[in-house]
């Protein structure tokens, strides 16, 4: 599966537009070549370097299997008009939480795109624990990009 997270290059700096130092929008994601049996797609973004441990920045699921693009700047709400659902991030809000590490060492932000063999039976607004439990054993393929971001 080929996945492009707009402006993100593995191992390089996260563009400011996806951070709290910019407008803090979610990136556009384009893909093709989903594996056979794909029923839906999901997106996870997290920061393992957060002071209190893993910080989940974004949970998205219910992306239809026939889709090839997730637009940038998704609304920060539980459910989107096209049936896509978003979970609660570690900041306690729905949708995308921009990269915003405390001053100091660069943090690693991992953006993962998942092809699933199910349409997860999850209500919008669930937390990471419920999300992970529902997807366990159902990921056909995962493509990830890790970007770095630091603040002074």
TrEMBL record:
Database matches in SUPFAM superfamilies: PEBP-like
PANTHER family associated with the record: PEBP (PHOSPHATIDYLETHANOLAMINE-BINDING PROTEIN) FAMILY PROTEIN, UNCHARACTERIZED PROTEIN YBCL-RELATED
Matches recorded under InterPro entries: PEBP, PEBP-like_sf, YbhB_YbcL/LppC-like
Membrane-spanning segments: none
Gene3D superfamilies assigned to the protein according to its UniProt record, in alphabetical order: PEBP-like
Organism of provenance: Dehalogenimonas formicexedens
A Pfam family recorded for this sequence: PBP
Taxonomy, superkingdom: Bacteria
Protein name, as recorded: Phospholipid-binding protein, PBP family
